[in-house]
Amino acid sequence: MICKIRKWKLSDAEDLAAALSNTKIQNNLRDGLPYPYTEKDGTEYITDMLSADEDQTFAFAVTADSKVVGSIGVFRQENIHRQTGELGYYIAEEYWGKGIMTEAVKQICAYVFDKSDMIRIFAEPFAYNAASCRVLEKAGFQYEGTLRNNAVKNGKVIDMRMYSLLKTEIN
After folding, report:
1. Considering the entire predicted model, what is its pTM?
2. So which residues are the signal peptide here (predicted)?
3. Closest listed residue to residue 104, CA positions, set 134, 126, 71
4. What separation in angstroms does the CA of 157 have from each of 16, 86, 161, 163?
5. Around Cβ 13, how many Cβ atoms within 10 Å?
6. What are the distances in angstroms from CA 123 to CA 15, 26, 54?
7. According to the 3-state scheme, what is the secondary structure of 37-100?
8. What is the pLDDT of residues 125-139, one digit of tens each?
């Protein structure tokens, strides 16, 4: 299965909604996403991503065999962290465990480091999300530590893990 990242298209809203209307996915993301996630929600998100400052927001659809199967983005931080970006991603459940997201992470990091002045990309998966931690490790990210009691998700106080990749670590 060939994985590629590409700019969003408004016609991707249906696939986006199908992937995000899954509590197993939403349980591993930050709060604020509507459930069920509708095609209208997808259209609004895609419109926002297409109109975002391209030096601040690097947002892409993840495709496998020409179908949108997920989303990935790097979001520039501010102030003293202005050359650092936070990575976020998800993939439709039927594509879990196939190496697609690892490849998408590698692709977006190479793109961001090539097209911007960013020197560091980090991700903070929930500590219980072993699959996401493994994606980051396979993509070359370094584990930096556990952020204890760092979030409240679904009414529970949880730990998060900090991973990062430096521009100097890309081959």
Report:
1. 0.95
2. none
3. 71
4. 29, 22, 14, 20
5. 21
6. 24, 17, 20
7. CCHHHHHHHHHHHHHCCCCCEEEEEEEECCEEEEEEEEEECCHHHCCEEEEEEEECHHHCCCCH
8. 999 999 999 999 999
Segments making up each domain of the chain, as ranges: 3-122
Q: What is the DSSP letter of 145?
A: E
**Element containing residue 26 per DSSP (H, E):** helix 23-26
Q: Which of 112, 109, 66, 64 has its CA nearest to residue 91?
A: 64
Number of residues written out for the chain: 171
Task: Say how many C-beta atoms besides its own lie within 10 A of residue 77's C-beta.
Answer: 15
For domain 3-122, which architecture applies? 3-Layer(aba) Sandwich (3.40)
The pair of structure tokens assigned to 159 is 């730990």
Question: Could you tell me whether strands 120-123 and 84-91 are parallel, antiparallel, or unpaired per DSSP bridges?
Answer: parallel
Q: CA 105 to CA 102: how far, in whole Å?
A: 5
Residue with tokens 């993840």: 62
How confident is the model over 58-89, as pLDDT tens digits?
A: 999 999 988 999 999 999 999 999 999 999 99
Tokens of 105: 């992470």
